[in-house]
Amino acid sequence: MEASGTEAALSACLEALLASRSNANRVFEILEQLQAEQEEIVVCAIRTCSRLFGAFLKRGELFVGQLPPEEESLQESYSAEDKYRIWMRLRYNSCINCLGELMGHRSFQVKESALCTLMKFVELEAKHPLVLKEWSFNFPQKLLKLVVEGLIPTGEDSSLLVSRFQEYLEHDDVRFFVMKSVAENVGSVMPKAKKAPFPVYQKNVFALISSISMPSGESEIKNFLVRHANQEEWKVSKLKEHRRAFERMWLGFLKYKLPGSLYKKVLVILHDSILPHMNEPTLMIDFLTVAYDVGGAISLLALNGLFVLILHHNLEYPDFYKKLYSLLDPSIFHVKYRARFFRLLDLFLSSSHLPAYLVAAFAKRLARLALTAPPDGLLIVIPFICNLLRRHPACKVLIHRPDGPPEMSGDPYRMDEKEPSESRALESSLWEIKTLQSHYHPDVARAAATINTPLSEMEEDLSEVLEMTVFEMFDRDINKEATDIPLEYQQVQGLFGKKDDIFSKYFTFE
Length: 510
Hints:
This protein has 510 residues and is mostly helical.
């Protein structure tokens, strides 16, 4: 059957079903088309279901309460009215289960139609409840849970569908129950990952929960999909309840090992989008400790999260600077996150209350690493060390030590020592910077010569050099305007120095 013919047939079924209960069996003609091969027919069937059951929900023609089995509903104890409502309620349940399956359809148009129809039913069920409760606040959590399951499948990327769902997350009640559903879903799915990991599932969950925008105050919780008479008494109206659901969702997600790419994505948004909305941010310390052990950029970002907890939430973490110190190795000059590394390193060492031995250890280790660093890295690390000396005048002894070691073999500094306090950096000197004054690149030699004169009180701005690459340095050097340099006092006249030699007709000297 062609799509146009099917659409006409579905419209006829819809009109018949809405006109008379005697046509109730024709609902199967609509439900059957939800399984069609052609996506145009499926979309048309979804639209028809939306109109049909939307009308039934508004009319109150579906059974309300605990739904009995279909065989039991045929008994004489039920009236003809109840039998019809139970029967149509069962068809409605079949419809929503089918729509849940269609959220995994190969066609995005079908997925989107199924999602929007289910969310329409969520709104209608909230206004016209099908489940009787002792209290006056109703929300179809079971139906929304079905939607959440469709948004975070285990086998395929659903990020596009999640982005389509974001408009519904603007409703405070929807967002609250989505967070609760995600926490339950992760708790049931992830324990099975011990046998086989679910990286696609975890990415889908992250796409959904990272798109949740939390309110910062209770006054902002006012946009509800469905309003109740005593709205302010509903727990969904309380910021504390939202934070509790938010915290439980994130902690449940982060308790399991993540793919490397997800660690980085979580840590990038951690201090801005996660920690401020948790009741107890220090509960994240276990996740951050595990993330630090991953290595590379993830370790640095994990330390950033720990730093926020130390700074704003009074977390005691005595190994913080020891872990940061261990991240200083030759690779910091060659990775793509170099600029971010030095920005965060500058932030972590910004306090003027840090002990001199600690700052000296960082300055000395950076200076030693500078001996093998590329020119673009040196233009970062040299002013960085000078800024450390400006902040901590007690460390200037490193450049005012005439009896310092003349070479590496006599340097008391212990490069392999993991504990900064045991590195003996304050007993050493920054002879490495003095060595770099003989660097082949003039900009590096000029930067290293800064320590020959008294350092100004104003710190150098590193923003310009942090993003500079060696290619940009090369282009800048090539484009410099060079002055003419005379190679000889008398201009040459010919190939062999004679004015009118035989080769003058072939060569021109200017």
